[in-house]
Amino acid sequence: MNPALELALQKAKYYNLPRDVIDKAIKKWSWQLKADDLHEVIYEWYGPGWAAVLVKTLTDNTNRSSSNIRIIFWKYGWNMWEPGSVSRQFKEKWVFEIDWMSEMINDKWNMVEKVNPLDYDEAEMDLLDMDVEDVENEDGHLIVTVDKNNFTSVRDALKAKKYHVIDWALRFLPENTISITWEDEKALESLMEALDADDDVDSVYANNA
Predict the structure, then answer these.
(1) For residues 103-126, b (16+ Cβ closer than 10 Å) or e, as one string?
(2) Cβ of 80: how many Cβ atoms within 10 Å?
């Protein structure tokens, strides 16, 4: 199953959404899988503070999206660079977010699912035994970084261990980060917001710390 569709169905089940909402999710993602006229195009720039910026678009009109992206960058005073000059500083990886784990218990002769808070030390030991690259604790959730080719093995291992994954996504992560000034950070934030507002833009990434 496509990971995006699988996640949509998992969230629908978790939040007990009605059947018609689930059906709409299936139709949405099934349509996207069949949409041969949608193209993924990556644009790359250096932005404020010389932060590396990647823009991922999904579009049925590459001329339109290219023009729109260029105009946004020109408006903010930055120009496109040669393909590969920026993207080589990023790697595409899967990122999982885990919030709790569960176990099946016998409650008056019925097997029910019990939700348990994460034991972070134990969870990190579990995760490091899987094909993961990094584990971080962010606001009580574990953020797990996984090689692009290891999605299925890690997803299945998390399921077998009863970890609850609230989100997963394929993201471009910087190999290294750089520090920029407060002024450049604000300018970069404005630039990324403008890019993200474009209908053809799927995601925007930068390598600032």
Answers:
(1) eeeeeeeeeeeeeeebeeeebbeb
(2) 17
